[in-house]
Specification:
Blueprint: E1 2-8, E2 16-22, E3 29-38, H1 41-47, E4 57-58, E5 63-70, E6 82-85, H2 94-97, H3 107-112, E7 123-125, E8 128-130, E9 143-147, E10 151-154, H4 160-163, H5 169-181, E11 188-192, H6 196-208, E12 212-217, H7 220-229, E13 233-236, H8 242-250, E14 254-259, H9 264-272, E15 274-282, H10 296-300, E16 305-308, H11 316-328, E17 338-342, H12 346-355, E18 360-364
Parallel strand pairs: 11-12, 11-14, 12-13, 14-15, 15-16, 17-18
Antiparallel strand pairs: 1-2, 1-4, 2-7, 3-5, 3-9, 3-18, 5-6, 6-10, 7-8
Helix pairs in contact: 5-6
The structure holds zinc ion (2 copies).
Protein name: Alcohol dehydrogenase, zinc-binding protein
GO molecular function, one term: S-(hydroxymethyl)glutathione dehydrogenase [NAD(P)+] activity
Pfam family, one: ADH_N
């Protein structure tokens, strides 16, 4: 079928919006008419080749839409179902079988390989293959071909226009708190970086009952939003010694910290700001090969933990519907993060994301 999609053709160059051809669903695949799709930091670092996704490629991995057609053997959804698309996982490896699909042994190939595991891509332009299947979806497009494993059914009245980001950025931040760190009510957390991921973590920390929630950023507008969404304290890292301030606020260091910026010096701060037995969650995706330093004795003596967290340790079929309910109850106001763009304005959305003008750009593609 003919689709319109945004293609990343060259490293660090703007997306080009083109008419392409998309195959129908094979066995186990699900064709989704995209209603809206979020833009995540990972889309931009793949366009810029921090991660070696083969180009040209249709990126986009926070799609939400309506099922149009299912391939042979698909029983989870049927045409007409409303779905959020999330990361791909194989379902067969040891970590998938242990219920941790975001650490799937095939994660890189399935999500960043630009093709199905057999090497084929469902997308082409005038007969020439274009890489697709990015995060099992390639949703910067009017239609996306997903798989049964990475479509999550949501209620018929769910607001699809804003739900796409639950599939990656939002579950990454919220899940790090609710699935991984499990802060006790009354505990303290400091979140470095208040973009979409960090703000999702702050909203989740409020739900979990943290009574000290510190947001750290260098953009005053973001700090204001962090306060509105649940931060009890907001620190401008450009003006304040954040580690010293966190130790003062918490009386010795935070119980939990999250590093969402992928800046090595900020990871150091996130570790330094912890108190005894504190845990630092590492979430920010850095350029491959990036190294960071920390004081070994400052980890050893206070018994600190440093833990990498992918996709918020989410089991999407369980966790995304929970976030949809929390949003419906007004306890997880993710709509506050969203700014809408048309698919044709994708380069403006990317620029606003990079320059901080938009927390979470969402591209409107079709009718809800
Ligand atoms: Zn797996
Ligand atoms: Zn993402």
């Amino acid at each position: 079928m003919r689709i319109t999609a945004a293609v990343a053709r060259e490293k660090e160059r703007p997306f080009s919006v083109e008419e392409l051809e998309l195959e129908g669903p094979r066995a186990g695949e699900v064709l989704v008419r995209v209603v809206a799709t979020g833009m995540c930091h990972t889309d931009l670092i793949c366009r810029d080749q921090w991660y070696p996704v083969p180009l040209p490629c249709v990126l986009g991995h926070e799609g939400a839409g309506v099922v149009e057609e299912v391939g042979e053997g698909v029983t989870k959804v049927e045409p007409g179902d409303r779905v959020v698309l999330t990361f791909a996982s194989c379902g067969k490896c040891a970590t998938c079988l242990r219920g941790k699909p975001s650490y799937c042994l095939n994660f890189f190939a399935l999500n960043f390989g630009g093709a199905r595991l057999d090497g084929s891509s469902p997308i082409s332009a005038d007969g020439a293959s274009v890489h697709g299947h990015f995060f099992g979806q390639s949703s910067f497009a009017t239609h996306a071909l997903a798989t049964e494993r990475n479509v999550v059914k949501v209620p018929g009245d769910a607001p699809l226009e804003i739900l796409g980001p639950l599939g990656c950025g939002v579950q990454t931040g919220a899940g790090a708190v609710l699935n991984t760190l499990h802060p006790e009510a009354g505990s303290s957390i400091v979140v470095f970086g208040t973009g979409a991921v960090g703000l999702s973590a702050i909203m989740a920390a409020r739900i979990a009952g943290c009574t000290t929630i510190v947001g750290v950023d260098v953009r005053p507008g973001r700090l204001e939003l962090a306060r509105e969404l649940g931060a009890t304290h907001a620190l401008n890292g450009a003006e304040t010694d954040a580690v010293k301030a966190v130790k003062e606020i918490t009386g010795g260091g935070a119980d939990f910290s999250l590093e969402t910026t992928a800046v090595p010096a900020v990871l150091r701060q996130a570790i330094d700001a912890l108190g005894p037995l504190g845990t630092c969650g590492v979430i920010g995706a850095a350029r491959l090969g990036t190294e960071a330093a920390f004081d070994m004795n400052d980890v050893l003596v206070p018994g600190k933990t440093i833990r990498g967290i992918v996709e918020g340790d989410s089991v999407p079929d369980v966790f995304i519907p929970r976030l949809v309910k929390l949003h419906a109850q007004g306890r997880f106001p993710l709509d506050r993060l969203v700014r809408f763009y048309d698919l044709g304005d994708i380069n403006e959305a990317a620029r606003d994301a990079e320059e901080g003008g938009a927390v979470k750009p969402v591209l409107r593609v079709g009718r809800g």
